[in-house]
Design goal:
The structure holds two protein chains of two kinds. By secondary structure, chain A is of the alpha/beta class. Chain A has nine helices and twelve strands. A six-stranded mixed sheet of chain A has the order 6-7-8-3-9-10, with helices on both faces. Chain A has a four-stranded antiparallel sheet with strand order 2-1-4-5, covered by helices on one side. In chain A, strands 11-12 form a two-stranded antiparallel sheet. The longest helix of chain A has 16 residues. The radius of gyration of chain A is 19 Å and the shape is globular. The relative contact order of chain A is 0.17. Chain B has 14 helices and no strands. Chain B is globular and about 70 Å long. Chain B starts with 11 loop residues before the first helix and ends in a 6-residue tail after the last helix. Classes of the chains: A alpha/beta, B mainly alpha. Chains A and B meet through helix 2 and strand 6 of A and helix 9 and helix 10 of B.
Amino acid sequence: MRLTASNLAYGYPDRRVGSGVTLELAAGEVLCLLGPNGSGKTTLFRTLLGLLPPQDGAVLLDGCDVQTLTREAVARQISYVPQAHGAFFPYTVREIVLMGRTAHMGLFAAPSARDYSAAIAAIKRMGLQHLTDATYTRISGGERQLVLIARALAQDARMVMMDEPTANLDFGNQVRVLERIRSLAEEGIGVLLSTHDPDHAFLCADRVAMLYQGELVACGAPEEEITPQRLKQLYGIDVAVTALTLADARTRHVCLPLGTL
Amino acid sequence: MSPSKVPGVRAPAVSIVVALLVLIIIIGVAFSVGQYPVSAAELLRVLRAWAGGAPHGLDPTLDTVVLEIRGPRVLAALLVGAALAAAGAAYQNLFRNPLVSPDILGVSAGAAVGAALGIFLALGVVAVQSLAFAGGIAAVGMVYVVAKSVRGHDPLLVLVLAGVVLGSLLGACVALMKYLADPYNQLPAITYWLLGSLASTDTRELWIAAPLIAAGLIPLWLLRWRINVLSLDDEEARALGVATGRIRLTVIVAATLMTAAAVAISGVIGWIGLVIPHFARLLTGPDFSRLLPVSVLLGAGFLVAVDTLARAIANIEIPLGVLTAFVGAPLFLWQLATTRRGWQ
């Protein structure tokens, strides 16, 4: 399975956000999208998901234009983890995760036993068993973020798009989510995530794409593309990028912001 | 934050059974109150005889009271209460707001214009009710078309704004007709209609309203899971595989059909569509597959109870719309003050 965007121009009817984006995501790989605030990451996600019609170019899912697919057909193949948010009604965590199964249910159906067990399995995979019956509106922002990832797992799609999945998480949960993303890729799922921390790309990504003012300025292996020059262009600050050799002889790259600090 | 069990949520079946029992008790009480009290035993015997059993051998006046006076009125209250509560529950999910009532898209305002026009033109009861029904449907249709033609805004927000604007315009039309109406016959009739009443319900009206209300209720039940997902953010619901535009239109059509049919036979009755789904949600949680049946049962029970009060607490009939507000508003405030759970 392959998601392709070719020469994509995207944005809203009265405002173009970006153009010329050519991007590919294959099953089993992690692609990390970096870009400063307002660079168009969320709008690009919406366009890739088919929620926003492209202004030019096309988004193809295995060669098939996503604009021509039904919402159900797209949802069975691509799941979406939005930035954590409130809900309007006090659903339980189990009910929120069950909503991930919607695309697998008939139009007039309610969740079946199979949907329930898929939801419970997803909750377990995210280590959220203790929250199963908790009210979604009353758990913390970080916990909600993990619940939304569980919902995407329950959706059982071959591609997952995560919009800043680590934004609300503590240090430990950030790493746990990155580990989960890595293991999804090992299971053959393609993951596209956006993040504000270039170190996350070093930790979990096969490739990194950098978005600046709506256009892709780089796309490739993190170790090659994440350079002090690129980070200066993206974020306007001086950053040192260093390779560390760990005790077990593995090499890791890290970013250290300098600025005027 | 530590995980918290939701207080007050009972198993789904329990809340439905409780609501059903309460409804049956209220119906029994409704028959026993009035100038000619009917006990539960008498009620059952009359109904059995009516259903084709042996003659009950009781006072024949009982037949008249149960089958022609109180029966149709209780049935009308059941239908109207159930319809308004179900439509309110659906709209609260659709608009992601627990303070929304079925009137929000102008159905009552449109029905009021239709009814006022019918009274103004001195038409018969059936014509007035048909005009009220058509007015309600037409108003919501107009709101939907106007909202559809406005682009570049949040579709829900535009719907609500169009509903508010058109509702107030239609209110002005009603005011104009009241101003022009004959002050001795027509004006009181219009005013009386706007206050809501079930006093003059007859069985024929019920035979027309009941299928319309059922026709609205069935799609809401069939789409119960999609309606849950619809209460999420619009893009999120679409990413989960819901064709939000189509489901939203279906819910609006279904809820409008029910509300217009209910308002046509009862006049304008407020508060039920706002308060009842709210209480149902407290009793059973927000899952629409439980919220809908519990709302229907509670709404039916609430209106039968209030209608019984309306004819029992004073020598004259108290208008239903007035009484639902007198009962509904304090209940709502009390609930607001005593529970912390609910919405954000």
